[in-house]
Amino acid sequence: MKALTYHGPGRRTWGEVPDPVVRDPEDAVVRVDAVTICGTDLHILKGDVPEVTEGRVLGHEAVGTVVDVGPGVRTFAAGDRVLISCISACGRCAYCRQGTYGQCTGGGGWILGHLVDGTQAEYVRTPFADTSLHHLPGGVTDERALLLADILPTSFEVGVRNGRVGPGDTVVIVGAGPIGLAAVTTARLYSPGRIVAVDLAPSRLEAAKRAGADEVLDAATGDDAAIRALSRDGLGADVAIEAVGVPETFELCTRVVRPGGRIANVGVHGRPATLHLEDLWIKNVTITTGLVDTSTTPLLLEMLAAGRLDTDDLVTHRFGLDEMQDAYDVFADAGSNGALKVALFRT
């Protein structure tokens, strides 16, 4: 089969690799029908994730059809249409038993496209199929479901829920890329008083408005005071969500949060950020970090099937699976072409 493989910082190849097979009784092999590229994949290609080794098939988000299962798989069978979660869960360790699947110590967690071969391929082996795949409702399209493999649960769990967004809150979301836009969408479920999106790209600020942001601010021209001034009383954000993954955006969140506020870091960081405790220690500020657990994926799937969750504007560019290299080029140059999520489909 063909797959996208990693060969060190800045080097990737679309070419032939061996077909995946069932190795463990709990495995499933899934034909990839739709797949996308994540900002984390770009971090890997920059060398920010050193655990990814030479020749690894990248990708951790896909929708597909089961073609084979191991003898230990009970709830999936060949022909089932499934969402492949970005997180694999053994279902037995202490973390899995409390729903913290991202920290699985039984061989799961974020492994696809990281520690084992991932989804940017024609087929993928998915460990722990019973607890890591999701049946797709018949009325949900591949493209819509694809966004629930990672960015919707990530934004919801690590951003909105960790930040404890509540009714009337001022929520500042720094970064209006796919994760930031998904945070806008899911923050609205809690009726905040005002959602403010901050970004450098005009196209992304326009996308944030369409997603439901009440205010948008160009980070190049607006300073900290301008962001705080958009809160209900000028003191700053009740919740500041970091959705980029660079030191500057995290540090911006620490400057625009109000006393007693919460900072929810979602971005993947490859460089150190300075934590100014000399300023923050007195402000009762809570800072959370996290890897998504995907414990909310079933809920989000139900909302999507019921028409209560709108993901239609998040995919801006579509490709065939064999156009993977072109899709990467477009996604990596989002600042000039307005790309949000790219989706690739089996043709």
UniProtKB/TrEMBL annotation:
Highest taxon listed in the record's lineage: Bacteria
Keywords noted in UniProt: Metal-binding, Oxidoreductase, Zinc
SMART domains (alphabetical): PKS_ER (SM00829)
Claim: Metal-binding is one of the keywords in the record: yes
Coiled coil ranges: none
Cross-referenced InterPro entries: ADH-like_C, ADH-like_N, ADH_Zn_CS, ER, GroES-like_sf, NAD(P)-bd_dom_sf
Membrane-spanning ranges: none
Cofactors required: Zn(2+)
Domain Enoyl reductase (ER): 10-344
Family of this protein: Belongs to the zinc-containing alcohol dehydrogenase family.
Protein name: Zinc-dependent alcohol dehydrogenase family protein
UniProt source species: Kitasatospora terrestris
